[in-house]
Amino acid sequence: MKKVLSVLVIALVWTLSVAARTQSNSMAPATSDSSKSKEEKNAKAKNTGKGENTSKEEQSKEQGKSNTTAAATPLTPTNSGGETSDAPSRSVTTVPSGVPVTNSAPPKEEPKATPLPTNIYRVGAGDVLDIRLLNAATRESTLFTVMADGLLEYPLAGEPLQVAGLTTDEIDARLTSKINLYEKPQVVVSVREFTSHRVIVSGLVSDPGTKVLRREAMPLYVVLAEAQLKPEAGQATIVRADRQTLTINLSDQKATTVYVLPGDVITVSAPPPAPPQFFYIGGQVTSPGQKDFHAGLTLTQAVLASGGTTRFAGNKVKVSRQGEDGKLVTTEYNLKQIEQGKIPDPLLQAGDRVEVGRGGW
Predict the structure, then answer these.
(1) Model-level pTM?
(2) Domain containing residue 188
């Protein structure tokens, strides 16, 4: 009996162990499947999150594009992150559609034009300045002379100022910066007596001597008008301070606009003698050849200046004149008709060729 019971117990234990093994084998795949499903769910969740983030980024890009293409949108910087950090913030600038963004440099200031020498005056030694301080109603003398070394002694400015070569506006600015008696000094400077810019005029003028320029330069015709040219004056010679020499023909109006500078010496003289001019006569005259020509010479005068006609001379005279193209143009005249007053006595020109014909020619 005991043997039978022990056999049953062993069989029951073996059966239970087999059942347990079978159950464990059936549960293992389910566990792995559940873990796999969990991993797949997590992956899907991540992918879903990425997709949502991507869609959000795409939406933000689309929104940025729509903001960029909006018409007449003002330029407003916006913070892209909205979070505070140590890194420098970036700004996004939106511009109206069709307007290019360029980093153009600010326009350069054009240099100031240099004033003409006929429009300015630079103070020199000996000039007398009228300096008025509008802040103080004073009756004291306001005249101050520029000393030989170019210094100006103005009591309210302290030490003497170097003013030679400056304009009255520049002197005004220097005095204003030096006067400390008033908070905002108002200074007005002008030239009362011009003495530093001098030229000398001599020669064929009624009022020779030293002339004073009231500008840095003056046209020659202005200076000569003050000196009063004589009728016989024909040319002016200008000697500069650097020994440069200019000769001006006074009959040329454009030439007389040349500038006269301080220190110039001007000599007015008669025009130079004109180069000799001639006409040429031949044929039936007593003294043919080259003859002196002067303005106003007529044909009959030219014949008489050549000793008159010979006894073989006829009435016809040919005058040949060179044209601009270098070719000679010949005109025929009748001396008898000229002498009888039937036709005018023609004027000759320098270089004319006159030929008196023979009778029966």
Answers:
(1) 0.54
(2) 128-193
